[in-house]
Amino acid sequence: MAANGFVLALSAGSRMKLPPTNPPILASTLTVEIAPEPYDSPDAQRLVRSLDAGLAELYVPEERFGPNLKPEQLAGGRGTFLVARECGRAIGCGALRVLDPATAEVKRMYVEPDLRGKRLGRALLDQLEIAARALGVRRLVLETGVHQTAAIALYRRAGFTPLDCWGEYTSAPTSVCFEKHLQPVPPGGRA
């Protein structure tokens, strides 16, 4: 993370500065830093493995779509992968994959079980929205599962509304899809 803010690498040689997260975000009683990291970094992969293990307890393989996300789908300004850290320890993550010039998909949202309920998921989601705006995205979409009631509640509180599922999600009876239209950031202001 940059000394004076959150930085999102958009493509080789191009960087876009996002609003500062210094001082770090306070998620309930946690002091958390959220920053982009390579999707294939060891900490990112540990978090993703934990996410996938939890989902495997709830859904059959045909109803789990997270493993379909690949590092190249986030590279070159097509998205980002954020990792939340407390005292240097990776404790949560979330991804943003651009689908078209106006739309990006929120993917791979995860918070370690012992840290849930401390607003860390909302802090990650807020940072993904900032990253989406920096990428020029005006609409976010996501898919989650019917058994993830806490995630559904988080998305609704954050302003997401139900959406008919699309693409690969239409075949899964346990998929629930949402969207959120992002308000443009006023010149010189914050959303």
Fold and architecture overview:
With 191 residues, the chain is an alpha+beta fold. It has a single domain (6-142), classed as Gcn5-related N-acetyltransferase (GNAT) (Aminopeptidase), CATH 3.40.630. The chain contains three helices and ten strands; from the N terminus they run E-E-E-E-H-E-E-E-H-E-H-E-E. It has helices at 42-56, 120-134, 149-157; strands spanning 6-11, 14-18, 25-27, 30-36, 79-86, 89-100, 103-111, 139-145, 161-163, 175-181. The longest helix has 15 residues, at 42-56. The two termini are 21 Å apart. Residues 1-23 have low confidence and may be disordered.
Write the layout of secondary structure elements.
Elements: E1 6-11, E2 14-18, E3 25-27, E4 30-36, H1 42-56, E5 79-86, E6 89-100, E7 103-111, H2 120-134, E8 139-145, H3 149-157, E9 161-163, E10 175-181
Low-confidence stretches: 1-23
Count of separate DSSP helical elements: 3
Characterize the main sheet: 8 strands, mixed
| Share of β-strand residues | 35-45%
Strands ordered across the widest β-sheet? 3-4-5-6-7-8-10-9
* Fraction of helical residues: 10-25%
Terminal CA distance reads 21 Å
What is the CATH fold-level name? Aminopeptidase
Average pLDDT over all residues: 83
Question: Top keywords for this entry?
Answer:
single chain, 191 residues, alpha+beta, Aminopeptidase, eight-stranded mixed beta sheet, two-stranded antiparallel ribbon, 3 helices, globular
